[in-house]
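To whoever is on call:

I kicked off a structure prediction for a single chain this morning and the downstream step that reads the tokens threw a length-mismatch warning. I double-checked the sequence; it's 176 residues and nothing unusual in it as far as I can see. Pasting both halves so you can look.
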Amino acid sequence: MNNKILLDNLRSIPDFPEKGINFRDVTTLFKNAECLRVMEDELYDIYKDKGITKIVGIESRGFVMASALAVKLGAGVVLCRKPGKLPAETVQESYTKEYGEDTIEIHKDAITPDDVVLLHDDLLATGGTMKAAYNLVKKFHPKKIYMNFIIELVNEGLNGREAFDKDVEITSLMEI
């Protein structure tokens, strides 16, 4: 999709969090009302007819558009967080990422087999975090799982899509 207003407002920070990484900072999109509207409208157009009942936002930048889209779709929001941040009983998934090992979790009662779930995060790079979230959500046996990113890094040789089964519908608002 690569909407010009989104591309024009996306900030890149070289050598963050470590040398050689070009960090894509979506907070510049979130602080701009027009960018928020464009992202919400584009996401709504993609998912309005998919029957989404829950949107899983990945900590923490995934929470923003997950919440905005959920309101527009009439869906619920499920928070996918780092351990110790959710107050009730959780289900966890551990994974390896570029900078070490991590774990994510969601509430044990967050998703049912009747749900159609959209997983949302800000960025697809290697796919490690989203793969863990996908595996976590699969444990609930929902009817269907979709996946969305604001940004997908396609020109950096990271091949994030390769982490997922071919039958998973993956969309992104920008390919960089």
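Update from on-call: the warning came from a stale cache, not from the record. Cleared it. Sanity check on the structure: The longest strand covers residues 116-124.
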